What does this fold into?
Amino acid sequence: MNAELLGGAGPFRIMGIVNVTPDSFSDGGLYLDPAAAVEHALELERQGAAILDLGGESTRPGAEPVPAAEEARRVIGVIEELVAAGARAQISIDTSKAAVAEAAIAAGATLVNDVTAFRSDPAIASLVAASGADCCLMHMLGEPRTMQQDPRYEDVVAEVKAFLEGRIEFAVSAGIAEERILLDPGIGFGKTAAHNLELLGRLDELVALGRPVVVGTSRKSFLGRLTGRATDELLAATIATNVLAYERGASVFRVHDVGPVRDALAVTAATVRAGCQSTTRTSSTTSTKV
Ligand code: HH2
It folds into this structure.
């Protein structure tokens, strides 16, 4: 791969998904074996993942909760192996439990991705503060078991934005430096397809909060509903939403298919840059004025 052709990877980071679970919605059971998970994570890094997001508990609608000890057993060995293998990507732990976050940080994780934004286990906040790790605070309406049962909002973007502002305040009051915080609208977490589309279309309003915005649309069911396709046929739809989210100001893209999304975003970033730097545009504007 010759990234030079595109002038580097661009101002975005790809977060590759590594689900060490039996029941994740699109890849459940594929990487439950630690060796398979490590190999998959290293492959995602080779494809351009700057962050590897390891999860030991599915958050799909209707998922059953997993005890902390089992969740930790699934992911901690994988993190240790990745560190031993010299992985250069930032290691992220996708968990809502302080015990799992603590063990993951001890093993080498430096980002805590909590889909409950520290609401299910507020102790994670002080843990993150003390360790100096980064954190991703995500919006979710309700909880995974029931979140897709008739979610309602007056103004989904305004409500998600107000929620995220409140969670930034909570995290900062727990001692987390603001520059360590990432925000995520929580695509598919207590949202209809229309809510997800509106959040993506108005993502710039969340970017205005001043923290990097993470988006996770990869293979999600609203894309299947829009295209009439099965979960394993949603790469084109996933790319479309990530390109649009980039254009609206998102910085981190949480995906299963790292290589294709990386290519799409590299070309998008280069095109946006070329548009901003265009001398032709400057001179034509000048000549119109004259
Ligand atoms: N989506 C999922 C899990 N974690 N974290 C963030 N920050 N943003 C997301 O959109 C997000 C997330 C669900 O996707 P996946 O991990 O593929 O499935 P499962 O939860 O079934 O393991």
User: Anything to note?
Assistant: The CA atoms of residues 214 and 252 lie 4 Å apart. Residues 284-290 have pLDDT under 50 and may be disordered. Residues 258-277 form the longest helix (20 residues). Residues 10-289 form a domain with the TIM Barrel fold (CATH 3.20.20.20).
